[in-house]
Amino acid sequence: KLKVAFFECSAEWPLYWMHRMDDDWEWAKDFPQISGQLKMPPSEYVKRNCYVTCEADEGDMTQSLKEVGEDHILMATDYPHFDSEFPHTVSGIRERTDLSAKQKDKILGDNAAKLLNL
């Protein structure tokens, strides 16, 4: 039931991290004192319980949407930092051609509402 959100660190970093944890989990299955009580690969826990943020100028998000899940990516404005796209962050996401309209809606608000039980 625990939900964890990672803000201001992009939606790309979990790709490597998830695969690395799964590889280590596979190896550690023979060592219960290391693998603990995990019933599923660590990436499955990430997909179910973790949220990450993206910014409008983030690179191709195809893999992040697939691996992390389009229901677990939120929008970050990076405001009030000097390099923030604010107040054009929403239009930056809306203008992207690599995201469907449904994915844009999720990233821009639906996923945050779900995370916060709004």
Task: Give a short synopsis of this structure.
This protein is mainly α and 118 residues long.
Features of this protein?
6 helices; single chain; 118 residues; 48% helix; TIM Barrel; three-stranded parallel β-sheet; 9% strand; mainly alpha
Any idea of the CATH class?
Alpha Beta
Q: What's the pLDDT, averaged over the residues?
A: 88
Order of helices and strands: EHHHEHEHH
- Kindly report the spatial arrangement of strands forming the biggest sheet: 1-2-3
Parts with pLDDT < 50 across at least 5 consecutive residues: none
Derived structural class = mainly alpha
Tell me what you see in this structure:
The chain is mainly alpha-helical. The protein has a single domain (4-115), classed as Alpha-Beta Barrel (TIM Barrel), CATH 3.20.20. It is built from 6 helices and 3 strands. The protein has helices spanning 13-28, 32-35, 42-49, 62-69, 89-94, 101-115, and strands at 4-6, 50-54, 73-75. The protein has a 3-stranded parallel sheet with strand order 1-2-3. Helix 4 links the parallel strand 2 (50-54) and strand 3. The longest helix has 16 residues, at 13-28. The protein is elongated and about 50 Å long.
